[in-house]
């Protein structure tokens, strides 16, 4: 036994040594600058993202400061810090194919969603189907439903105990109920819950702690999926709540499939029933538009819905929290917004999403909140499968996972002077290259895989601000502060103090306009 153990250890040492030599000097990426330790092992990345908690983004920033705009930050991936190259990595179909990297979280455990679809062609097929229900004309149909939920939120603001509201919880409840209703036809009930209690949001916050484990050790998700939910809950594992959401989404998917069959006659034509309006939901549209049985499975529907709920809830709520935080921090923004909203031909809370998008200052507020919130901050690598790329004179071989985190575009001081400042007026000015600043707003992503839910998110943000600003004055509660320059990357930006994620404000009825 002793000989066997010694032999194993010696063989392992030889293997690791040879692999390190290969990765440093013979790997296709060996010519790309970066820390040698990062090129040798993923454990360097794991230490900063798992042990230290989502801080590798700032180590990558240090790498760029030392090595330049192109760095090899782990054995197989390259990161680029060049905002003018962002649209090459995340490009339109006309500029080339882009596959998703297998290292993206969920690729191995949530295989059926649009977000985790690997190949360019398969993604294109799935996206074409979903765009019919996520496009602006479809979202416009849901404006009355969005307003219903906003009205509930405004009522809760006016009834807030001691006039204090946690913006994070409030906006997470709004997005959870709205997105849930959009997806399945049913609200999650978070807006009416005491303290805006929202299990999905809490699960996504606690589960975010495991996102880097899933990314670097994908087999963990497979192991956890085999453990009963009751055991995961007992152990207090955050991923247990995510799996519980998956089960809830699965039940909604079964219901949607059943209703679809009940409202379709033997000839495959829809019949008029009392349930017909539910066919306008995301689920119903996905089922009705699918041309293959593969796209109508329970797994496909439940995973798609879970990803939309988790991704859309935290990011959209984060943008609105940041916008409202700055309304409280900078009262002059509220004053300017009220003057602009007063120019509408109807009360602001009755204006359409389209009308609100035509207001330049309100649009600037939304875009600044999007920029500073970063959207999905996690690296989402793309692969050019059939063509080498070149950046800063460095050849990036075909098949290499390439990424650029949104923060390095959204906070670039050349494109956005004083990037930490919340300045809604900057959006009326061009970028240094003469292009509109929208070209460099990275929060929704770019190219063929940009955020498919951006129209729904935009409608929620515009309509909510139009209702909130004229009705309430916001002031920051004692101790409330958001650090825009230093945060943890947990898929979206999280505060350095993970035990203090509340953003509290005092809410008071605005004085009647004269």
TrEMBL record:
Needed co-factor(s): heme
Family annotation (PROSITE patterns): CYTOCHROME_P450 (PS00086)
Gene Ontology annotations of biological process type: secondary metabolite biosynthetic process
Binding annotation for heme: 451
Entry keyword annotation includes Metal-binding: yes
Keyword Iron: yes
Any GO molecular function: heme binding
Gene3D superfamilies assigned to the protein according to its UniProt record, in alphabetical order: Cytochrome P450
Keywords tagged on the record: Heme, Iron, Metal-binding, Monooxygenase, Oxidoreductase
Stretches that traverse the bilayer: none
Xref: InterPro entries: Cyt_P450, Cyt_P450_CS, Cyt_P450_E_grp-IV, Cyt_P450_sf, Cytochrome_P450_monoxygenase
SUPFAM superfamilies xref list: Cytochrome P450
Similarity field: Belongs to the cytochrome P450 family.
Protein name as catalogued: Cytochrome P450
